[in-house]
Amino acid sequence: MSDACFQNWSVQKLKTALRKRSPTTHGRKSDLVESELTNGSTSTVTGSTLNAALGLDTLKSQQEHYDCVKSGTKRKEPSPQVMEKMVHGTQNEIHAVATAVSKEEGRIKTESNGVCIVVSPDGSFVEEETETTTMAVEIKCPFPAQPGTYKPPIYHKVPKYYVPQILSEMYALNVESLLFLCYSQESTSAMHAHFDADLWSMILKQLEAVYETGVRPVRKSNQIVHLKEKISAYIDKHVKFIGEFVSVKGEQCPGKTSHIDEPFCTHKKAKHEVSTL
């Protein structure tokens, strides 16, 4: 198989494995998490709206979210600047996935009956034999700094406003950890986050306090300061920085790529169609 074909097949396998799993509920209320993308518009919250819904952002953004959920108020269209950032993130996600599947996990040393064994796995997201999800993955592609300004191109710590989202994803997928990737064209950072049941319980209770009472918030909850402190502590205690790596750029294969169970794909180059293995 050519390198290009293998990389395309690997990306398709990874993306399918990450998306086809049916989320479980951990015995809690599944309607508070983004169980399926198609239901995101009718749910109380989604992973990406948790920060605003909780009141961790501004009171105005929480009220706007509350009105949308409880009163059916139409959600405001994103500004052109926000839309530009959203499009940037979507378009660059494939490159972050390509970077992830192109990296080895490094050498792992083990011993068996006195024999030293060193292996270098290519990755571990889904248990192949049981087909159970073992780790969630969240990808961020920050919008580059404007000309004449500077900001770090990637994160080296998970931003506080993403913590509710990554906890919700681990909760929904019933996994204990998550790989957080942050991509730029030059480099990609990787962080390993672990699930914190106590913090997630606090988040659920705060959501329930706001969205099950039927009372629109008129001020920030007294618990928000404490919740923010817990989130800061979570980042220090439960998120480990793995490293920063040279990025790989992915390209959308123009051929038929519906195959994900076998390493076959069809590529079109110029006017000739070539099948590769």
Automatic annotation (TrEMBL):
It comes from the Eukaryota. This is YqaJ viral recombinase domain-containing protein. GO terms for biological process: DNA repair. The lineage of its organism: Eukaryota, Metazoa, Spiralia, Lophotrochozoa, Mollusca. SUPFAM superfamilies: Restriction endonuclease-like (SSF52980). Residues 17-27 have a biased composition (Basic residues). Residues 44-171 form the YqaJ viral recombinase domain. Residues 17-42 are annotated as: Disordered. Pfam families: YqaJ (PF09588). InterPro entries: NF-kappa-B_Signaling_Reg (IPR051703), PDDEXK-like_dom_sf (IPR011604), Restrct_endonuc-II-like (IPR011335), YqaJ_viral_recombinase (IPR019080).
